[in-house]
Write a structure and sequence with these properties.
Blueprint: H1 9-21, E1 32-36, E2 42-47, H2 74-77, H3 81-87, E3 98-103, H4 107-115, E4 120-125, H5 130-145, E5 149-152, H6 162-170
Parallel strand pairs: 3-4, 4-5
Antiparallel strand pairs: 1-2, 1-3
This protein binds zinc ion.
Length: about 180
Amino acid sequence: MKKENYMSWHTYFMSIAFLSSFRSKDSKTQNGACIVDASNRIIGIGYNGLPRGCNDNDPQYWEDSDDNDLVRSKHTYVVHAEKNAIYNCMAHSMTGSTIYVTQFPCNTCAQAIIQVGIKKVIYLRKKEHSHHESLNESVNKMFQDTNVMIICYEELNISDSFFLKELERMKCLYE
Ligand SMILES: [Zn+2]
């Protein structure tokens, strides 16, 4: 007999993106991303972290106090989850694929998403405060002009979205 209650695709892929974020060594922000092709095959996974080979134990890479000091700011060094998923997927064509991301993408990740031909973005949460408001607006403009669909996971009203909330709770095991 076929099991009637099983995980939806959306929750499955978002959970994988979310689970990938557990690997991040960024003390403030852990993000994950999962790229899926039109046949629901996972073709790329990523989380935010330093470029391969950069020493994770060097505190200079993780400074988060003064954004004007570019040489001592993690924002200069950390590769975002979306880009890492794209880099990990270079062997495949990403044309027409979907990316599941734990956070609404920034402007440069949006550019990368567009350039590799990803056509749908499903995100879990969004930063709304002042600086991000205009960044989000610019991301929406680029996606709109290039026919990339962007959807909030919650707005999909997935019946098993409770699973993500459970996962979120489990994240505190690593706090
Ligand atoms: Zn980004």
